[in-house]
Specification:
Shape: globular
Strand content: 5-15%
Helix content: 40-55%
Number of strands: 8
């Protein structure tokens, strides 16, 4: 049984379940007290307010699943980009090399893991969205929980549509003894436009309900700012610049601010601070290592010292930082260096560079493994400023674009950018987005695609990227087989 945990700084909720597209899951009040895997939803579930809360907490917990934010995620979003190579040692997880050089095929297991992990989250969200409305409970809490589920469903569909293009849309599950049609059980791929329309609808509805903040016991749940910021990014990926401008202005008006020192963002003490808009919450739960299951840091930690050693930052990324850019030392952990927290990185580490944003000092508990306390930063205020700058520039508002951009640059210790050229400013903003968010939120590959530069940039790095094919990844053959051929493959694969 898969144990799922949603962690805030003050409370922990546990839920266990069977996770599959279109499937049902079982759950109980304790992760140790669950029905056998494969059983249907208990008639006693989705009855109380507490069960409604637990069901949504399970969606958050799924964000820490290995398929959602570890190997499959890092392979698709980061190792495929010009920011990182596989890392570790030759022969270890050699299948990741196929993402690095774009020789992967539809049978690659990490692709199926990526697909499965995202649809696990979607299925859990659909369970909550479908069943919570019938529960007799506080109506404001009910609306908020449904809005949180819609935010998380949108997040997963956004990951899927950027990776594969159009994918099957599932927005509900059967209730009671309802029977689904064959088409509902085995849906064909929706179009890219249809998937984006669903994402926008979910986030637009979530914005109307979600609060701007929570009390300490609920830190980490989706807020109004998180829904607005994600919606702005969704619109940016479709070049809807007026919408991006409006949405980022709304986020800016909510009171977020840049953390004064960039280095402080990625410390444990910097979690959920004034710059944070949405983070995946992670924590060591004493005596419960099954619940302390985040491996995002562990797989990227220095091999033979902290972790597995995957995701090696490229020299090209190192060279992308301007002289004096404070972000370089915070982003790249070099072999042989001494960290501000006192750890000396071994001189015999297999790789010359590692992701410092995944680093957790050795004095932090490792009861359940390395880095279990490191939150994953998904959306920060700096990204909102950069989205605002990009939208302003595309709309011809040069000074407004520079004002937003230079807040980010000056925090990094750099001089303000000055230009009157829209094209030059566009390239500066794209560059700034790369170095500000490097190795952090997985956008680099997708950014290159939306900017129309993927072939140019990645081919220059020696990758076998084929224009007109590799902008999306192949639909996993396992999913095509399970669908009986209803799912169709992307061109060129």
């Amino acid at each position: 049984m898969k144990n799922i945990v949603f962690k805030t700084k003050r409370n922990t909720l546990l839920l266990a379940g069977v996770l599959a597209l279109g499937g049902l899951y079982s759950c109980g009040d304790s992760f140790l007290d669950v029905e056998p895997e494969g059983s249907t939803v208990s008639e006693n579930f989705f009855v109380t307010s507490d069960q409604a809360i637990q069901s949504v907490s399970a969606i958050y917990g799924n964000l820490k699943d290995f398929n959602v934010f570890v190997f499959p995620w890092l392979a698709v979003t980061t190792i495929s980009s010009d920011n990182a190579e596989k890392g570790s040692v030759p022969g270890d997880a050699g299948f990741l090399d196929t993402f690095d050089d774009f020789t992967l095929t539809s049978t690659e297991g990490q692709l199926n893991g990526f697909w499965t992990g995202q649809y696990q989250g979607i299925n859990l969200a659909n369970q909550s969205i479908t069943n919570i409305p019938a529960i007799s409970m506080d109506e404001n809490l009910k609306a908020r929980l449904i809005a949180e589920a819609k935010f998380l469903r949108a997040f997963h569909y956004f990951n899927l549509v950027r990776t594969f293009g159009g994918v099957p849309l599932r927005t509900s599950v059967p209730v009671g003894k309802e029977q689904e049609t064959p088409e509902q059980l085995n849906p064909a791929r929706a179009s890219r436009e249809e998937v984006y329309a669903q994402i926008i609808a979910d986030l637009t509805e979530a914005v109307q309900v979600l609060p701007p903040s929570y009390d300490a016991a609920n830190v980490g749940r989706a807020t109004k700012g998180a829904a607005l910021a994600l919606l702005a990014k969704v619109q940016m990926y479709q070049s809807n610049w007026n919408e991006v401008m409006s949405l980022t202005q709304q986020v800016i008006g909510l009171g977020y601010s840049l953390t004064p020192k960039y280095a402080d963002i990625f410390k444990l003490s910097g979690e959920n601070n004034q710059e944070s808009i949405f983070e995946v919450q992670a924590q060591t739960i004493p005596g419960n290592c099954d619940a302390s299951n985040s491996q995002w840091s562990e797989v990227q930690g220095v091999r033979n010292q902290f972790g597995w050693g995957f995701v090696e930052p490229t020299q090209d990324l190192v060279d992308a930082f301007e002289k004096g850019d404070e972000r370089m030392e915070v982003t790249i952990l070099f072999r042989g260096e001494k960290t501000p927290e006192g750890d000396v990185i071994t001189t015999t580490a297999p790789n010359p560079r590692y992701n410092q944003k995944a680093y957790v000092p050795s004095f932090v508990t490792q009861e359940c493994g390395y880095g279990k306390d490191q939150n994953i930063r998904v959306i920060r205020y700096a990204e909102v400023l950069l989205m605002h700058a990009e939208a302003a520039n595309e709309l011809g508002n040069t000074q407004e674009a520079l004002d937003a951009l230079n807040q980010v640059r000056e925090r990094a210790g750099l001089t303000p950018a000055t230009t009157t050229s829209q094209e030059e400013l566009r390239m500066i903003i794209w560059h700034e987005r790369r170095v500000e968010l490097a190795l952090e939120n997985g956008d680099r590959f997708f950014d290159l695609v939306r900017q129309g530069r993927a072939a140019e940039v990645l081919q220059a790095q020696g990758k076998h990227f084929v224009a007109g094919k590799n902008e999306v990844f192949p639909i996993p053959q396992r999913q095509i087989d399970l669908s009986g051929g209803v799912l169709t493959q992307n061109p060129g694969y």
